[in-house]
């Protein structure tokens, strides 16, 4: 990455900021863009101490801004998005404007500016609740939520822009990412929410019977996959799963979280299933291994242990 000039959209968000730090540590010159809809400046505290980093507050719906920022850019990592599945059910138009039209703006500006590589943050939500497991890239997509539909449409634009304009585009379908800097708001990932609840002495509440399973992916693995994809020619026009490749049931994981946290008198509670949620999900990792040489270095439990250490240190717990 030494000497590369990189634009990261959604740079003040959970994944974007972790990616920014990793790119800077590898010697890249990084421009971060975020409209602060869900981002936090504290996520960029260490990046802002680095002279090779510049942050701009701005919106991916502003095409002229993108065109301006993409002058002399080699790689674009497009992480900015309307990221909440439940909120996309309440605000599908806004979700489409940001996640579909915003992505199209990125592609159009990248094309005009001859950007070498565009890596897009897609999501396992494009698979929906199909019974086939593991989810493999070539299976029929059946998203349930407007968020999943928007990610599917954006992916299709990336593939199309590779075919018709020869842009080197790659979509990475992330599966349930977790780790440092993830928010613990109602709409965040379940591990961040439960961790905060456990330390507040509250019982974690699972939607459904807890038998649902997920392929929780530690943020460091996602960052590594992005760096590999950013430098890869083999993945042009491709869509790849990025996961740990190993499912875990939600009740099982929550019990481990409670135990590892060392907190007493915490019990799991259960409530009704959430609209748009899927039952089981885990990713087939063969294509990412074949094209990127990517293999996860963490599973849900080892990732959680590292996240817990970070969390305790951050809040002096
Ligand atoms: N976290 C996960 O488990 C997960 C799973 C699959 C896919 N993804 C995708 O990964 C990417 C990063 O997600 P995250 O978990 O870091 O979420 P996040 O909400 O922390 O980060 C997204 C960032 O995008 C910014 N943003 C939103 N709208 C914008 C706009 N119009 N213009 C500029 N910036 C805007 C937000 O302020 C935020 O900082 C997203 O594209 C998300 O859809 C995340």
TrEMBL record:
Does this entry carry the keyword Lyase? yes
Quote the protein name from its UniProt record: GDP-mannose 4,6-dehydratase
Organism's domain of life?
A: Archaea
Q: Which range is the signal sequence, renumbered to this chain? A: none
One Pfam entry for this protein is: Epimerase
The record's similarity note reads: Belongs to the NAD(P)-dependent epimerase/dehydratase family.
A single Gene Ontology molecular function, please? GDP-mannose 4,6-dehydratase activity
Keyword annotations for this protein, in alphabetical order, are: Lyase
Taxonomy of origin reads: Archaea, Promethearchaeati, Promethearchaeota, Promethearchaeia, Promethearchaeales
Q: Which residues form the NAD-dependent epimerase/dehydratase domain?
A: 6-243
Enzyme Commission numbers on file = 4.2.1.47
